[in-house]
Amino acid sequence: MSTISNTPYADLEVGQQASFEKHLEERDIQLFAAMSGDRNPVHLDAEFAAGTLFKERIA
Q1: End-to-end CA gap in the chain
Q2: Full 3-state SS string of the chain
């Protein structure tokens, strides 16, 4: 499990960095589609996506 911390705006300094990494899962794709209304089949349908220039589903 990753740790998320909060830095108040007043404590930010030039040169600071942060990163976040997440491996997308099927549930993430389905939830995003439901929340955003983006039902593009290139995201949701592997068979459709196979026939596109991407050759597979994209997120």
Answers
A1: 23
A2: CCCCCCCCHHHCCCCCCCCCCCCCCHHHHHHHHHHHCCCCHHHHCHHHHHCCCCCCCCC
Is it the case that residue 1 has pLDDT exceeding 80?
Answer: no
Please determine, for residue 47, whether its predicted confidence score (pLDDT) is greater than 90.
yes
The pTM of the full predicted model, rounded to 2 decimals, is 0.63
Q: How far apart are CA 27 and CA 33, in angstroms?
A: 10
How many other CB atoms sit within 10 Å of the CB of residue 18? 7
